[in-house]
Amino acid sequence: MIARVTGAMVRACLVVLMISTPSLLLPDVPGDVTQIVVLLCIFAAGLTIFEYSATYPGLVEFRHAPPFNRIRFAAMFLTVLVLTLICRGELRPTALTEFAQAVGAVIAEAIDFPYSPVRLFSLLLPPDAEPWLIKLVSSAAGMAYLISLLALAVFTLMTRVNNWPFRNGTFNVWVNLPTFDPTAGGDVVERLSRDARFNVALGFVLPFLIPVIIKASTTLFDPFSLEHPQTLIWTVSAWALLPASLFMRGIAIGRVAEMIREQRRRAEPDEEPGLLAA
């Protein structure tokens, strides 16, 4: 009990640190933004402590199947930190921020080809955008997309090398997939496989679809400006990491379906040779 609560509090502190990183590192943050960040930190910390200190399942999937959530959180934290350094370099440049900007510019140039996700995201800027803003958005999008691809590659590699989730021994579907109802009807393996394919397909399409949706929504609502560092950081982070998270979820659910299929195969009684010969 003590170890579980302590682990939940440590996770809550890390979540609070991630959410508050832009406000801590960026200069001249408005007071109303700081208040909103404080409220978000309180809510996120409470939710994290409640989820990871409880015995029964809640909302977080794969809570007891590391390193799924750890890789996702590490990718999110790294993305927010790097994008914050890139934005800080436009206001108060240092050697570290200039290095982050240089790396982001190189990566953006390498993957900014026609119809690429980075190119589509850069089209969210108005036609009369300043050159520095175009460079900033391209660098941020390139870095975020690279981190999401690396996180996806690391998770895929670890599932193969460590034979995830088999290496953890028992895998409790009820705890790790709290939103999945095995009694809803139909074969469990088929439903899991269908959900896995849907998540993988959605994760592949979203980097191209999100800029189109945002661009279309500006005709109905007031367009937001990527000139604000906080808006740029969280928009780019969500654009890059949400598809990667769905892709990872699809891979994880597919592995769970494979695990259940393998357990069924082992549980089936061996057919007698005489029946096979007949």
Tally the helices.
10
Strand content: under 5%
The count of strands amounts to 0
The structural class is mainly alpha
Q: How far do the termini sit from each other?
A: 58 Å
The string of secondary-structure elements, in order, is HHHHHHHHHH
**What would you call the shape?**
globular
Low-confidence stretches: 271-278
Proportion of residues in helical segments: over 70%
Average pLDDT confidence is: 85
Major sheet attributes: none
Spatial extent as radius of gyration? 22 Å
What is shown here, in short?
This protein has 278 residues and is mostly helical. It has helices spanning 2-25, 31-53, 68-91, 95-111, 117-122, 131-161, 173-176, 188-217, 229-267, 273-277.
Structure description:
Keywords: Membrane, Transmembrane, Transmembrane helix. The chain crosses the membrane at residues 37-59, 71-91, 132-157, 200-221, 233-257. With 278 residues, this protein is an all-alpha fold. It has helices at 2-25, 31-53, 68-91, 95-111, 117-122, 131-161, 173-176, 188-217, 229-267, 273-277. It has a domain at 71-165 and 182-266. It contains ten helices and no strands. The longest helix is centred in the C-terminal third of the chain and has 39 residues, at 229-267.
